[in-house]
Amino acid sequence: MAGPLISLTTDFGLNDPSVAACKGVIWRIAPDARLLDVSHGVPRHEIAAGAAVLWAVLPSLPVGVHMAVVDPGVGTARRPIVLRTVRGDRLVGPDNGLLLPGAERLGGVVAAHALEAQAYRLATVSRTFHGRDIFAPAAAHIANGIPDEAFGPEIDLSTLVRLDTPAARTSAGVLEATVGAIDSFGNVQLLAGIAELEAALGPIAGGDALVLEPVGAGGTERDGAIGLRWRLTYGEAGADEPLACLDSYERIAVAINRGSAADRYGLRPGRPIRIRRDA
Amino acid sequence: MAGPLISLTTDFGLNDPSVAACKGVIWRIAPDARLLDVSHGVPRHEIAAGAAVLWAVLPSLPVGVHMAVVDPGVGTARRPIVLRTVRGDRLVGPDNGLLLPGAERLGGVVAAHALEAQAYRLATVSRTFHGRDIFAPAAAHIANGIPDEAFGPEIDLSTLVRLDTPAARTSAGVLEATVGAIDSFGNVQLLAGIAELEAALGPIAGGDALVLEPVGAGGTERDGAIGLRWRLTYGEAGADEPLACLDSYERIAVAINRGSAADRYGLRPGRPIRIRRDA
Amino acid sequence: MAGPLISLTTDFGLNDPSVAACKGVIWRIAPDARLLDVSHGVPRHEIAAGAAVLWAVLPSLPVGVHMAVVDPGVGTARRPIVLRTVRGDRLVGPDNGLLLPGAERLGGVVAAHALEAQAYRLATVSRTFHGRDIFAPAAAHIANGIPDEAFGPEIDLSTLVRLDTPAARTSAGVLEATVGAIDSFGNVQLLAGIAELEAALGPIAGGDALVLEPVGAGGTERDGAIGLRWRLTYGEAGADEPLACLDSYERIAVAINRGSAADRYGLRPGRPIRIRRDA
After folding, report:
1. Strands across the sheet containing C109-114
2. Per-residue pLDDT tens digits for A92-103
3. Most confidently predicted of A169-173, B215-219, C24-28
4. pLDDT at B219 exceeding the cut of 60
5. What is the domain count for chain C?
6. In this structure, is residue A194 part of a structural domain?
7. Residue A29 is assigned to a structural domain of this protein
8. Residue C108 at interface with chain B, using a CB cutoff of 8 Å
9. Are residues A27 and C34, on separate chains, in Cβ contact within 8 Å?
10. Residue B164 forms part of a structural domain
11. How confident is the model at residue A150 (pLDDT cuts 50, 70, 90)?
């Protein structure tokens, strides 16, 4: 019979042994666990980028324990927590906004507990590596069936730290949204789906001409407007042709067929943009 | 008892959660499967490079299900397929030439089927991520014992798409071959083995002096000839000394001991070269 | 029941299929083994860096078989070996100094054997890829319970190759140490712990002002002295502020909060440094 699933998402990178130290701790406690690497390439300390990764991938994963560590505040006062989702998953990590978007995509949080019990931490907890010393042992003990209540007091859900990510806004003929994540190919994922796009622009169909405008920090247009067409898939556009499409995570993507839209247009996570129809 | 083996080879990279989404889908269907990452660093959209990776590694892997996705045509008309090999493996991926060289190295293809049955795809199939929505579920269902015939109609083997890779050619004292793959150390693997080299140059022994000439696209010599010696292993050459040897995948390699031959000589996959003896 | 653990540490990188070939060989022999990637990003041919990775991670791993390959001398006379530790682990790899520091951190070596028996190698051993042809099959057979003695003659422990790494030295108010490893964040790990630091400088407390001096190869001070403060964790320092702390592997680290100390100060593995109190 298959062992319990523990997924891992971090900004540790793969060159030093940090990820392996976490897995070693997990397997010393829960030797039967099946370990699934989500990504260890989250940009360093970028909590919003880590949250976007979890948001995107969690619906594809089995119900399980999902440990995530993007934790610039390690060793300071931020709380180590476990969230229980409607679906039955447990999300383990720091209370800094990293876990909530993914938990909400799985139906929402039904309970949160602090990870405080010494019995479920390593004997010595360093000030600098809670991934190995607190989160990995917690994930393993949860996989072994220890109930959330055993780890520490229940946390009022309204006190959980939330990311300050602007929601997409629609007005007469204009969608305003924020760049969420960039994939390995340089495709740019917006924090908006087809519902928001059609709320702003009306029903959209393959071939429709659109204009994308990156917006400066102050709300001024900084760069030129980019003309592109709505496509059903990347390969429908000609080579090197810009396009927008619904990506595989149900979000609007801006892409260049066989090229990098992120590099060409300088689009980075957090950048606001506007989309309208080409008049 | 060990679960069935599923290997994964893609050009997805490891920074975004695409690989994890595929693995999550697999484990939701086949929780006992043992997952083996071959490489997710195939150069983006380079079908021939992905095929070279499979060619090299498959003989070292157990009989199993081998899923490979290097798929610039995702969402267009190219067929999703499963190939059955003489050895009993299943190769799952797009019908674009990616799978055939590896399948032939395992003894050849005995049957091919299209992956069409809705029952063995995700409920919603995106236009942009068939790795997660078609290939991963197919690989998992095959690992669970679903027969190839259940996925769709049998495909005439003569209609499978083949890569257009030139075979090595031998003439009086000259081997003409193509650069296949570059490894992490910058060693350059030629699409030729010892049999082809000795057919052109006669019996070869450690220390024999050779000349390698990169050839321009039009067949003209573009760069200077490179003098090097035949060696039994990389460490036999002095530091920074160029050499040729039989690599660990039974192909001729051009290398620089503790250096990168690919970088120094500008050798990239697809580049034609000639080798002759130093007169 | 969980299968035996085999960890893998190499300088192969993840782009070519070398790591996968080793894992494939292992699973053909020991299909139940649980495989744990420590790192495949050890800098190429840097034996000391690989040894530092093993030193850091092995105490976090379960007792098991630990295969490590950083092997510039592959195919030459260096011996393939297995070390047995006090804790019961087996360390498998080349006799070039890579394995000893990690084995000693696990309590020390109780026996060493050469890996010579043809029965426990692949049928054909290449000159260039002993990871796949000698070390992976040895690791798998050991995981299956084959005793060390079956692989080849016992080796006199005094003949094992040792790295030439200088120990930390303390004198009146000065700690002299060597840079060991750099992690993914650019934090610089010194080959010295809190005991050595306090032996040189007396009891140390959060906020204490220190001076770090990189030392040139000839023992002359080459770069300017760096002022920093002792901290209990990275996040205690202001953004972009240099600090020293005890890292999560019980060694002194030099870091910049949210920056790279390795890049800013040009600190690389092997570089000697001095630390004293700021007068």
Report:
1. C34-39, C5-10, C65-69, C90-94, C80-85, C109-114
2. 999 999 999 999
3. C24-28
4. no
5. 2
6. yes
7. yes
8. no
9. yes
10. no
11. very high
Nearest to C132, CA basis, from C53, C90, C75: C75
CB atoms B127 and A245 under 8 Å:
yes
The reply to whether A125 touches chain C by the CB within 8 Å rule is no
Distance CA A74, CA A58 (A): 24
Q: State the DSSP H helix or E strand holding residue B189, giving kind and residue range, or none if neither.
A: strand B188-190
Global pTM value? 0.91
* Chain A, chain B: beta-carbon pairs less than 8 Å apart: 101
Q: Tell me, what CATH number does A143's domain have? A: 3.40.50.10790
Return d(Cα B188, Cα B171) in angstroms, integer: 22
Find the farthest-apart pair of alpha carbons in chain B and give their distance in angstroms, rounded: 66
Query: Is there a single domain that holds both residue B243 and residue B198?
Result: yes
* Chains touching chain C, criterion 3+ CB pairs below 8 Å: A, B
Q: Are residues A145 and A14 part of one domain?
A: yes
Q: Which uninterrupted H or E stretch holds A201? A: helix A194-201
Give B14's contacts in chain A (Cβ within 8 Å): 14, 37, 39-41, 184
Indicate if B174 and B256 belong to the same structural domain. yes
**Domain residues for B34?**
5-159
CB contact A230 to C (< 8 Å): no
Residue C62 contacts residue A27 (beta carbons within 8 Å): yes
Name the strand (E) or helix (H) holding A199.
helix A194-201
Phi, psi of C31 (to 5 degrees): -65, -15
Q: Which residue has the tokens 């920056």?
A: C259
C133 touches chain B (CB under 8 A): yes
A11 touches chain B (CB under 8 A): no
Are B244 and B194 in a shared domain? yes
Copy the structure tokens of residue A265. Answer: 């247009």
B10/B116 same-domain check: yes
C206-219 as b/e: b if 16+ CB within 10 A: eebebebbbbeeee
Looking at the structure, tell me whether residues B155 and B262 fall in a common domain: no
